[in-house]
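Async update (no meeting this week)

Hi team, since we skipped the sync, here's where things stand on the single-chain job. The sequence we agreed to prioritize is pasted below, unchanged from the tracker. I ran it this morning and attached the output directly underneath so nobody has to dig for it. Comments welcome in thread, and please keep replies under the output.
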Amino acid sequence: MTQPLLSVADLTVHYAGRSGGRDQALVAVDGASFDLAPGEIIGLVGESGAGKSTVAYALMRLIDPPGRIVKGSAMFEGRDLLALNEAEMRRVRGNRICMVFQDPMATLNPLMRIGDHIAEGLMVHRGHGRNVARQRAIAALTEVGIPAAERRARDYPHEMSGGMQQRAVIAAALAMEPALLIADEPTTALDATIQSQIIDLLIDLTRRHGTSLLLVTHNIALIAEIADQVAVMYGGTMVEIGPKAQVLDAPRHPYTAALVDSIPRLDEPDRPLNPIPGMMPGLAHLPEGCPFHPRCTRARLPDCLARPPLVEVAPRHRVACHFALKPPA
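Output:
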Protein backbone atom coordinates (compact mmCIF):
# COMPACT_ATOMS: atom_id res chain seq x y z
CA MET A 1 0.00 0.00 0.00
CA THR A 2 1.24 3.51 -0.82
CA GLN A 3 2.67 5.42 2.14
CA PRO A 4 0.06 7.99 3.25
CA LEU A 5 0.75 11.62 2.46
CA LEU A 6 -1.33 12.56 5.51
CA SER A 7 -2.07 10.31 8.48
CA VAL A 8 -4.40 11.74 11.12
CA ALA A 9 -4.79 9.89 14.42
CA ASP A 10 -7.11 10.66 17.35
CA LEU A 11 -7.52 14.35 16.45
CA THR A 12 -9.54 15.99 19.23
CA VAL A 13 -10.65 19.63 19.40
CA HIS A 14 -12.42 21.29 22.33
CA TYR A 15 -14.04 24.69 22.76
CA ALA A 16 -14.48 26.38 26.11
CA GLY A 17 -18.14 26.99 26.82
CA ARG A 18 -20.86 27.00 29.43
CA SER A 19 -23.78 24.69 29.96
CA GLY A 20 -26.24 24.73 32.85
CA GLY A 21 -24.51 27.74 34.37
CA ARG A 22 -21.08 26.09 34.64
CA ASP A 23 -17.94 25.89 32.54
CA GLN A 24 -17.77 22.93 30.19
CA ALA A 25 -15.39 21.69 27.50
CA LEU A 26 -17.42 21.40 24.29
CA VAL A 27 -16.13 18.58 22.10
CA ALA A 28 -16.13 19.73 18.46
CA VAL A 29 -14.02 16.85 17.11
CA ASP A 30 -13.57 13.64 19.07
CA GLY A 31 -10.83 11.27 17.97
CA ALA A 32 -10.89 11.74 14.18
CA SER A 33 -8.53 9.35 12.36
CA PHE A 34 -7.91 8.81 8.65
CA ASP A 35 -5.17 8.38 6.03
CA LEU A 36 -4.88 10.15 2.69
CA ALA A 37 -2.62 8.77 -0.04
CA PRO A 38 -0.75 10.92 -2.60
CA GLY A 39 -3.09 11.99 -5.40
CA GLU A 40 -6.17 10.70 -3.57
CA ILE A 41 -9.45 12.56 -2.97
CA ILE A 42 -11.24 12.07 0.35
CA GLY A 43 -14.66 13.51 0.97
CA LEU A 44 -15.52 14.56 4.52
CA VAL A 45 -19.31 14.60 4.68
CA GLY A 46 -22.06 15.15 7.23
CA GLU A 47 -24.74 17.63 8.26
CA SER A 48 -23.88 21.14 9.41
CA GLY A 49 -22.35 21.01 12.88
CA ALA A 50 -20.80 17.56 12.42
CA GLY A 51 -17.24 18.87 12.90
CA LYS A 52 -16.04 18.67 9.29
CA SER A 53 -14.70 22.21 8.96
CA THR A 54 -13.12 21.99 12.41
CA VAL A 55 -11.03 19.04 11.19
CA ALA A 56 -9.87 21.11 8.20
CA TYR A 57 -9.03 24.16 10.32
CA ALA A 58 -7.20 22.01 12.86
CA LEU A 59 -4.99 20.52 10.13
CA MET A 60 -4.14 24.06 9.02
CA ARG A 61 -3.57 25.03 12.67
CA LEU A 62 -6.18 27.76 12.40
CA ILE A 63 -8.15 26.91 15.55
CA ASP A 64 -8.32 30.11 17.58
CA PRO A 65 -9.25 30.50 21.28
CA PRO A 66 -11.55 29.54 22.89
CA GLY A 67 -10.87 26.47 20.74
CA ARG A 68 -7.83 24.27 21.21
CA ILE A 69 -6.42 21.04 19.84
CA VAL A 70 -6.41 18.74 22.86
CA LYS A 71 -4.63 15.72 21.47
CA GLY A 72 -3.84 13.70 18.38
CA SER A 73 -1.32 13.75 15.56
CA ALA A 74 -1.33 14.65 11.87
CA MET A 75 1.73 13.23 10.15
CA PHE A 76 2.44 15.03 6.88
CA GLU A 77 5.59 14.43 4.85
CA GLY A 78 7.28 12.97 7.92
CA ARG A 79 6.33 15.74 10.37
CA ASP A 80 3.51 16.07 12.86
CA LEU A 81 1.60 19.23 11.92
CA LEU A 82 0.15 19.47 15.42
CA ALA A 83 3.62 19.54 16.99
CA LEU A 84 5.17 22.24 14.77
CA ASN A 85 5.77 25.69 16.21
CA GLU A 86 4.11 28.63 14.45
CA ALA A 87 7.21 29.58 12.42
CA GLU A 88 7.52 26.00 11.14
CA MET A 89 3.80 25.82 10.39
CA ARG A 90 3.94 29.04 8.35
CA ARG A 91 6.43 27.34 6.05
CA VAL A 92 3.90 24.54 5.45
CA ARG A 93 0.65 26.52 5.41
CA GLY A 94 -0.01 28.13 2.03
CA ASN A 95 2.98 26.25 0.63
CA ARG A 96 2.88 22.46 0.93
CA ILE A 97 -0.74 22.58 2.16
CA CYS A 98 -3.17 25.12 0.69
CA MET A 99 -6.80 25.74 1.57
CA VAL A 100 -9.75 26.95 -0.48
CA PHE A 101 -12.24 28.53 1.89
CA GLN A 102 -16.02 28.59 1.61
CA ASP A 103 -16.43 32.29 0.85
CA PRO A 104 -13.93 33.76 -1.64
CA MET A 105 -14.88 37.34 -0.71
CA ALA A 106 -13.87 36.62 2.89
CA THR A 107 -10.58 35.15 1.64
CA LEU A 108 -9.53 37.84 -0.83
CA ASN A 109 -8.20 41.19 0.41
CA PRO A 110 -10.46 43.83 -1.22
CA LEU A 111 -7.48 46.22 -1.43
CA MET A 112 -5.25 43.81 -3.40
CA ARG A 113 -5.40 43.02 -7.09
CA ILE A 114 -6.08 39.38 -7.97
CA GLY A 115 -2.66 38.89 -9.53
CA ASP A 116 -0.97 40.21 -6.40
CA HIS A 117 -2.84 37.68 -4.25
CA ILE A 118 -1.32 34.85 -6.26
CA ALA A 119 2.12 36.41 -6.68
CA GLU A 120 2.51 37.06 -2.94
CA GLY A 121 2.68 33.36 -2.06
CA LEU A 122 5.17 32.67 -4.84
CA MET A 123 7.46 35.45 -3.63
CA VAL A 124 7.23 34.43 0.05
CA HIS A 125 7.48 30.65 -0.31
CA ARG A 126 9.28 30.18 -3.62
CA GLY A 127 11.57 33.21 -3.56
CA HIS A 128 10.42 34.38 -7.01
CA GLY A 129 11.01 37.98 -8.03
CA ARG A 130 7.98 40.19 -8.65
CA ASN A 131 8.04 39.82 -12.45
CA VAL A 132 8.43 36.04 -12.41
CA ALA A 133 5.72 35.72 -9.76
CA ARG A 134 3.36 37.89 -11.79
CA GLN A 135 3.85 35.80 -14.92
CA ARG A 136 3.24 32.64 -12.93
CA ALA A 137 0.08 34.22 -11.50
CA ILE A 138 -1.21 34.98 -15.00
CA ALA A 139 -0.45 31.40 -16.05
CA ALA A 140 -2.36 30.08 -13.03
CA LEU A 141 -5.40 32.23 -13.85
CA THR A 142 -5.28 30.95 -17.41
CA GLU A 143 -5.08 27.36 -16.17
CA VAL A 144 -8.26 27.72 -14.12
CA GLY A 145 -10.15 29.02 -17.13
CA ILE A 146 -10.23 32.78 -16.57
CA PRO A 147 -10.26 34.49 -19.98
CA ALA A 148 -8.00 37.48 -20.68
CA ALA A 149 -5.98 36.45 -17.62
CA GLU A 150 -3.36 39.19 -18.01
CA ARG A 151 -6.06 41.86 -17.84
CA ARG A 152 -8.08 40.16 -15.11
CA ALA A 153 -4.97 39.84 -12.96
CA ARG A 154 -5.19 43.62 -12.53
CA ASP A 155 -8.79 43.43 -11.27
CA TYR A 156 -9.80 43.86 -7.65
CA PRO A 157 -12.01 41.11 -6.13
CA HIS A 158 -15.22 43.14 -6.39
CA GLU A 159 -14.73 43.38 -10.16
CA MET A 160 -15.14 39.61 -10.50
CA SER A 161 -18.22 37.40 -10.21
CA GLY A 162 -18.48 34.84 -7.41
CA GLY A 163 -17.45 32.03 -9.74
CA MET A 164 -14.45 34.01 -11.01
CA GLN A 165 -13.42 34.81 -7.44
CA GLN A 166 -13.50 31.13 -6.50
CA ARG A 167 -11.44 30.28 -9.58
CA ALA A 168 -8.92 32.93 -8.54
CA VAL A 169 -8.70 31.44 -5.03
CA ILE A 170 -8.11 27.99 -6.53
CA ALA A 171 -5.49 29.47 -8.86
CA ALA A 172 -3.69 31.01 -5.87
CA ALA A 173 -3.60 27.62 -4.15
CA LEU A 174 -2.56 25.53 -7.12
CA ALA A 175 0.09 28.02 -8.28
CA MET A 176 2.03 26.83 -5.22
CA GLU A 177 1.80 23.22 -6.50
CA PRO A 178 0.93 21.96 -2.98
CA ALA A 179 1.01 18.31 -2.02
CA LEU A 180 -2.36 18.70 -0.28
CA LEU A 181 -5.33 20.91 -1.09
CA ILE A 182 -8.10 21.34 1.50
CA ALA A 183 -11.39 22.67 0.11
CA ASP A 184 -14.01 23.71 2.67
CA GLU A 185 -17.46 23.82 1.03
CA PRO A 186 -15.92 25.48 -2.06
CA THR A 187 -19.19 25.68 -4.02
CA THR A 188 -21.77 26.59 -1.36
CA ALA A 189 -22.29 30.22 -2.43
CA LEU A 190 -22.40 29.46 -6.17
CA ASP A 191 -25.27 28.58 -8.50
CA ALA A 192 -25.61 25.02 -9.80
CA THR A 193 -23.89 25.64 -13.16
CA ILE A 194 -20.88 27.35 -11.59
CA GLN A 195 -20.73 24.67 -8.88
CA SER A 196 -20.35 22.01 -11.55
CA GLN A 197 -17.61 23.99 -13.31
CA ILE A 198 -15.66 24.51 -10.07
CA ILE A 199 -15.85 20.82 -9.16
CA ASP A 200 -14.76 19.75 -12.65
CA LEU A 201 -11.88 22.23 -12.32
CA LEU A 202 -10.79 20.83 -8.95
CA ILE A 203 -10.88 17.26 -10.24
CA ASP A 204 -8.93 18.13 -13.39
CA LEU A 205 -6.26 20.17 -11.63
CA THR A 206 -5.70 17.79 -8.74
CA ARG A 207 -5.40 14.83 -11.12
CA ARG A 208 -3.10 16.74 -13.47
CA HIS A 209 -0.82 17.98 -10.67
CA GLY A 210 -0.99 14.81 -8.56
CA THR A 211 -2.32 16.84 -5.64
CA SER A 212 -4.25 15.15 -2.83
CA LEU A 213 -7.61 16.72 -2.01
CA LEU A 214 -9.56 16.83 1.25
CA LEU A 215 -13.04 18.02 0.29
CA VAL A 216 -15.32 19.16 3.12
CA THR A 217 -19.00 19.24 2.18
CA HIS A 218 -22.53 18.41 3.32
CA ASN A 219 -23.36 17.35 -0.26
CA ILE A 220 -23.18 13.56 -0.39
CA ALA A 221 -24.12 13.53 -4.10
CA LEU A 222 -21.01 15.61 -4.81
CA ILE A 223 -18.87 13.22 -2.79
CA ALA A 224 -20.33 10.32 -4.78
CA GLU A 225 -19.17 12.00 -7.97
CA ILE A 226 -15.54 12.75 -7.21
CA ALA A 227 -14.17 11.08 -4.06
CA ASP A 228 -11.96 8.02 -3.77
CA GLN A 229 -12.60 7.72 -0.03
CA VAL A 230 -15.54 8.88 2.06
CA ALA A 231 -15.41 9.83 5.74
CA VAL A 232 -18.80 10.40 7.40
CA MET A 233 -18.97 12.59 10.53
CA TYR A 234 -21.73 13.05 13.07
CA GLY A 235 -21.63 14.96 16.35
CA GLY A 236 -17.87 15.48 16.13
CA THR A 237 -17.05 11.81 15.56
CA MET A 238 -16.20 9.78 12.49
CA VAL A 239 -18.89 7.13 12.23
CA GLU A 240 -17.85 5.50 8.93
CA ILE A 241 -14.87 5.73 6.61
CA GLY A 242 -13.75 3.71 3.63
CA PRO A 243 -13.61 3.43 -0.16
CA LYS A 244 -16.43 5.31 -1.88
CA ALA A 245 -18.00 2.23 -3.47
CA GLN A 246 -18.27 0.45 -0.13
CA VAL A 247 -19.46 3.40 1.97
CA LEU A 248 -22.07 4.78 -0.43
CA ASP A 249 -23.22 1.63 -2.24
CA ALA A 250 -23.25 -0.58 0.86
CA PRO A 251 -23.28 1.72 3.92
CA ARG A 252 -22.86 -0.06 7.24
CA HIS A 253 -23.66 2.80 9.62
CA PRO A 254 -27.35 3.79 9.97
CA TYR A 255 -26.47 7.48 9.64
CA THR A 256 -24.62 6.93 6.37
CA ALA A 257 -27.53 4.87 5.05
CA ALA A 258 -29.96 7.62 6.05
CA LEU A 259 -27.85 10.27 4.29
CA VAL A 260 -27.73 8.21 1.10
CA ASP A 261 -31.48 7.54 1.30
CA SER A 262 -32.22 11.26 1.69
CA ILE A 263 -30.76 12.16 -1.71
CA PRO A 264 -33.46 13.02 -4.30
CA ARG A 265 -33.35 10.63 -7.28
CA LEU A 266 -33.80 12.08 -10.77
CA ASP A 267 -34.52 8.61 -12.12
CA GLU A 268 -37.37 8.21 -9.59
CA PRO A 269 -39.26 11.53 -9.71
CA ASP A 270 -42.23 10.13 -7.78
CA ARG A 271 -40.10 8.75 -4.96
CA PRO A 272 -40.91 10.61 -1.71
CA LEU A 273 -38.16 12.51 0.07
CA ASN A 274 -36.75 10.70 3.09
CA PRO A 275 -35.36 13.31 5.50
CA ILE A 276 -33.65 12.17 8.69
CA PRO A 277 -35.97 12.93 11.62
CA GLY A 278 -34.64 15.34 14.25
CA MET A 279 -31.58 17.59 14.17
CA MET A 280 -27.85 17.41 14.76
CA PRO A 281 -27.27 18.02 18.51
CA GLY A 282 -25.39 21.12 19.62
CA LEU A 283 -21.97 20.75 21.22
CA ALA A 284 -23.39 21.50 24.67
CA HIS A 285 -26.03 18.78 24.29
CA LEU A 286 -24.24 15.81 22.77
CA PRO A 287 -25.89 12.59 23.95
CA GLU A 288 -24.05 9.97 25.91
CA GLY A 289 -22.46 7.14 23.94
CA CYS A 290 -23.22 7.03 20.22
CA PRO A 291 -24.16 10.62 19.28
CA PHE A 292 -26.62 9.41 16.61
CA HIS A 293 -28.66 7.09 18.82
CA PRO A 294 -31.53 9.57 19.57
CA ARG A 295 -32.29 9.71 15.81
CA CYS A 296 -31.40 6.13 14.93
CA THR A 297 -34.04 3.55 14.06
CA ARG A 298 -31.67 0.72 15.08
CA ALA A 299 -30.73 2.13 18.48
CA ARG A 300 -31.06 -0.17 21.49
CA LEU A 301 -30.60 0.97 25.04
CA PRO A 302 -28.55 0.66 27.13
CA ASP A 303 -26.08 -0.65 24.50
CA CYS A 304 -25.97 2.62 22.56
CA LEU A 305 -25.19 4.62 25.71
CA ALA A 306 -21.64 3.26 25.38
CA ARG A 307 -19.38 4.87 22.78
CA PRO A 308 -18.92 2.41 19.87
CA PRO A 309 -15.33 1.95 18.64
CA LEU A 310 -14.40 2.47 15.00
CA VAL A 311 -13.78 -1.09 13.82
CA GLU A 312 -12.79 -2.53 10.46
CA VAL A 313 -15.63 -4.40 8.75
CA ALA A 314 -13.85 -4.82 5.38
CA PRO A 315 -10.42 -3.83 4.02
CA ARG A 316 -9.97 -0.07 4.68
CA HIS A 317 -13.67 0.18 5.65
CA ARG A 318 -14.33 1.10 9.31
CA VAL A 319 -17.62 1.69 11.13
CA ALA A 320 -18.50 2.92 14.63
CA CYS A 321 -21.82 1.25 15.46
CA HIS A 322 -22.92 -1.44 17.94
CA PHE A 323 -25.58 -2.61 15.47
CA ALA A 324 -24.00 -2.01 12.08
CA LEU A 325 -26.01 -2.82 8.99
CA LYS A 326 -25.32 -6.12 7.29
CA PRO A 327 -23.54 -6.05 3.90
CA PRO A 328 -25.73 -6.91 0.90
CA ALA A 329 -25.80 -10.58 0.00
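Quick observations from my side:
Residues 192-209 form the longest helix (18 residues).
Residues 1-96+212-267+274-329 form a domain with the Rossmann fold fold (CATH 3.40.50.300).
Reply here if anything looks off.
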